[in-house]
Specification:
This protein is an alpha+beta fold and about 260 residues long. The chain has three helices and twelve strands; from the N terminus they run αββββββαββββββα. It has one domain: Lipoprotein localisation LolA/LolB/LppX (outer membrane lipoprotein receptor (LolB), chain A). About 15% of the residues lie in helices and about 35% in strands. A hairpin with a 4-residue loop joins strand 11 and strand 12. It is globular and about 55 Å long. The termini are far apart.
Length: about 260
């Protein structure tokens, strides 16, 4: 009898494995700023916690089916590249000569002396947020709970898909506020042109300098994207004119020929 009970319990446990696996898959619902492979150039200026001015320029190469890369250039700290695949991530210094493997706890670190975090890059690249709790009667889609962030617990927006106000809360217990303005289509994706950022200890602004589709770098992925040259149409005055029959010589040329022959 005991043996039969054990077999029954074992069968129940085995039958629940697919359900648990399915629930585990549904715990993360990625929310990305862009779903296309795109290159975005971002500039930022801040007054940091030490009341010093600092700046950063970031080239974000977002790939829908590959690693995301951020080329981070700082004015007062060593520049680096940040590469993430979601499950693993690392930094490169001195053009790849030095590599640093990163765990999730490293994402709390600031980017240079700016108030930005490595976790901000991770959220941009992978957008790991928890799925809405289906057990709740009322679901607020404007409250996004992070699924893997070590810095931020939640992101609250005033509207979707193009919010103007954003509040981020996390381990520092000091909210971060964003004001997003001038949403514009870049390479077919709607992105905010300008963002102001503020908290109790810092403030600043971020803006998009340019954005290009991924195919702009396919020829040479190490080169920065270059805007294609615009070829203007040739005016008809200087173009070839098709004339039927015998080509007529202008009168002034006939006079010149006559004078030269005399």
């Amino acid at each position: 009898m005991i043996k039969g009970a054990k077999q029954t319990i074992l069968a129940i446990c085995i039958s629940t494995i697919p359900i648990l696996a399915q629930n585990a898959k549904q715990t993360v619902c990625p929310r990305l700023l862009t779903n296309s492979s795109i290159i975005v150039n971002i500039n930022g200026k801040f007054v940091n916690e030490e009341r010093n001015r600092t700046s950063v320029s970031i080239e974000w190469r977002h790939h829908s089916d590959a690693l995301d890369t951020f080329f981070v250039n700082l004015n007062d700290s060593p520049s680096f590249s940040y590469i993430t695949a979601g499950k693993f991530r690392y930094m490169e210094f001195e053009e790849g000569k030095v590599k640093r493997q990163l765990g999730l706890h490293h994402l709390r670190e600031n980017i240079g002396k700016t108030p930005l975090k490595l976790d901000d890059l991770e959220l941009l690249a992978n957008g790991y947020f928890k799925c809405p709790d289906s057990t709740k009667q009322e679901i607020n889609n404007n409250v996004l709970a992070t699924a893997a962030s070590n810095t931020w617990w939640s992101v609250v927006v005033d509207s979707l898909p193009t919010p103007e106000k954003v509040v981020m809360r996390g381990v520092t217990k000091k909210p971060r506020y964003f004001s997003l303005a001038n949403w514009k289509a870049y390479a077919g994706e709607m992105l905010p042109t300008l963002a102001s950022i503020s908290s109790e200890d810092y403030s600043g602004s971020l803006w998009i300098q340019s954005a290009y589709p991924k195919k702009a770098l396919e020829a040479d992925p190490l080169q920065k994207p270059v805007k294609p040259k615009i070829l203007l149409p040739v005016p008809k005055l200087f173009g070839k004119i098709t004339v039927e029959g015998e080509r007529k010589i202008p009168l002034i040329l006939k006079l010149n020929q006559k004078l030269l022959s005399e």
